[in-house]
Structures are given as C-alpha cells and as structure tokens.
Amino acid sequence: MAFLNIHTHHPCPEGEYTIPSYGIHPWDVTDQWREQVSVLRETLQSLPSETRYFIGECGLDKLTSASYQNQLSAFEAQIDLANQFRRPLIIHCVRAVDDLLRLRKKARTPWVFHGFRGNPQQMQQLLRAGIDISFGFRFNEESAMQCPAEHLFLETDEGRRDSEGKSDNSIAPLYATIASLRDISKEALMTQTVTNASRLFF
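User: That's the sequence. What structure does it adopt?
Assistant: Structure tokens below.
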C-alpha cells in the first residue's frame, strides 16, 4: 500500500500519492475574485465526472494582505462550487475560525482542515462542526494523539528541507512519527487514512 499525502504542493516520491486539488488560495484572492471563481468553475467542468479531487486549498487568512472581504466572498463561492460538484474542501484558515465555523453551516460536503497546529480544545471545536483534521510536519502532539482515527489525515504541504538543504517531500517519516505517538503500526495508520479519504468522496 502506498502512503497517502492528503495535501502537497510538490510531486510525491515513489510509493506515495496525493489527491489533486483545484481552488483559489486566500493569499491569491484579488478584487477580480468573481473572474477567478469563473475560471475555477470552468476548470472543474472540464474534469471527468469520476475524477477524485478537492476544491482548495481555500479559506480565510487574516494575516495576508488580500482583502478579507474578498476572501470571504471567494470562499463562499467555492463552498457553493463544492456543493454543486459534490467535492470535499481542503481548508486554509488563519485566525478566522469563527467565520469558518459560521460558513461551515452552508456546506453539504466534507471539509479537511489542513496543516492543523492547534491544541486539542481547538481541534474538538472543528470536529464538532464536522471538519476533519490533517497534520503536517509541525503539529501539537496532544492533538495528534487525541484526534479520532476516522477523522485524521497527514500531509507534507510545502514539504521540508533535509540536513543538506535539499527539498524533501516524502511523507513516510511523518507516518512513522504519528504512528509511534498513537502506539499503532505504520501500516494501520496508512490503511486508516485511505479509508478516511474514500469516505470523503461519498
């Protein structure tokens, strides 16, 4: 079985794979967000109906220079696209959880909060709203240990650099680390994340 990397911006090494995503990152939202959404819609319409993909990463980020109001509008539009095309969302959220949870009520498809670094209390808030959790290389150990198995994913996102400064996108070390923390086998964790991903696509 190959390692599932639920979210990455780089090609996966041999023995690993990801599920593609298409969306407007909150950092990239402009005043022309309607046109951006229109282009995204055309891209999604061009994909074969049986294709598995996420919409995203999309969401809200109060630390970026992009207009927050435009971010809200673009995010809502992508929620609508997810509902229309029946695809899950990969969520980027920085200091905007209240708005995220408010908009979650409009969704009819699963969401995965990527790169979660928060504490267990923050995680439980997301889980209660029906949002799954994805951990990258930087994470809160208590959260990674307590996350319900059926709502857990792993990712490399932008990857990391090895001791020689070379880019390393392999997710295998993260599986080993999280499996050890949770006191399960790496193979069991691999099986669980694949099962979880299958559920996202109804």
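Residues 72 and 144 are 29 Å apart (CA to CA).
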